[in-house]
Input
Amino acid sequence: MRDVDVFSKLLCLERPWFVERVILDSEDETVHVFLHHRSNARFRCPMCDAVLPLHDHTPFRKWRHLDHGSWKTWLFARIPRVSCMFHGVRQVRLPWALPNSRFTLGFEKHAIDTLLEADVSGASRLLRMTWHEAWGVMERAVARGLKAKRRRVIPYLGVDEKSIAKRHRYMTLVCDLNRGTVEFIAFDRKKSSLDAFYESLSSKQLEGIRAVAMDMWEPFISSTSQHVPDAASKIVFDRFHIMKHMLEAIDAVRKSEHRRLLEEGDDTLKRTKFLWFFSEENFPEEHADRFSRLKSLHLKTGRAWAIKESLRDLWNYQRKGWALRHWKAWYRWATRSALKPVIKVARMIKSHLDNVLTYCDHRITNATVEGLNSKIQTIKKTRTAFAIATT
Ligand SMILES: [Zn+2]
Output
């Protein structure tokens, strides 16, 4: 097969488009792919879809496409223009890129997947693009999300926030929990961010929502309450978010205890931060001895950790009544622990308890496929970081 045919296949080009020539620049490690169309091709007006003959071309434009190994790939083409009697002279739609984008659709999709797994700086490094380019890809994805008409009923939704850049810039993500797909993204994590998703749904689709997993975040709660019928029985506060609050509480206890111990010249808690994030059954073997010694010391941090471990049982009950009994005993223990950060989390969960226990009815969490992957990544990173810290 000739190289131009190989690239036509790789790019999934359809008539009238084809690859005219391919130039490899080994100095720059770039692949330049020149696209052209058949000379007799007719194109559609982008406004009214009328089929029209070619009017003229724009000068050459280029689009970044998916890398081939370490080689960056650029597509080059002159964009055909048509002259519509209603809409004047217009550039036609291209099968490989959206209007005004400097990236191919394939590249944008890959960039969005990367952006959802990392923050903007991390993604831009991996994708070898500038911060602003990565941000632009995200912005266009958000705009497409707002315009998209969804047709399916999505029974189980996960609403999540994701920090995407420094200075507390967030995105709101809506996932289909059954399929593990991202359905919608919006900038920010305000009520209006999530409103935009619900407003894109028909009343039948809104009625078809059986449950929504989310963090105890007021704007998301009020948006869901306003749009989803009978939301009170359908909101499930996500267990992973709740456990995250609990882990933060343990860390706050550890920090202040470590400070106090250091004043007495005791560095027992030094470099133990990540140890307390593990649960009993996932404990890395190489640190097991050290951790059981730590646990036997009757530290405040150890107590906070034990309280956290017990909270996890809340999600093991099949019946709400049993879960509620476990909750009451746990709440007594947590609030009498004299550990301020733990008490604060316990009270926060209590004020949202009804929609924590809805888990017994719906059994959903936000640990979608991607979520799980990134959690696994975090654990791997944490373990490596810890191994480095202790050696
Ligand atoms: Zn037209």
